[in-house]
Specification:
This is DUF2795 domain-containing protein. This protein has five helices and two strands; from the N terminus they run H-H-E-H-H-E-H.
Amino acid sequence: MSERDKGKDESARNRPNPIALQKALKGVDYPATRGALVSAARESGADDEIVDALEAIPEKRYEDPAQVSEAVAHRRE
């Protein structure tokens, strides 16, 4: 495995499971700010990996769960 491939594997491991992410955000009213998403995740009992991932996304209004998932997937690539 090349160093580049190892980096991709490591990056994927640092992302929360998309299904767990959406479960943590169940009931969120969209559009929602990053702060609202973080608060909702904490209130739902999400693990630190999910909360940390949400805290790392850009501050903006997210129109739907798909936008949140995309932002989490592309953070710090």
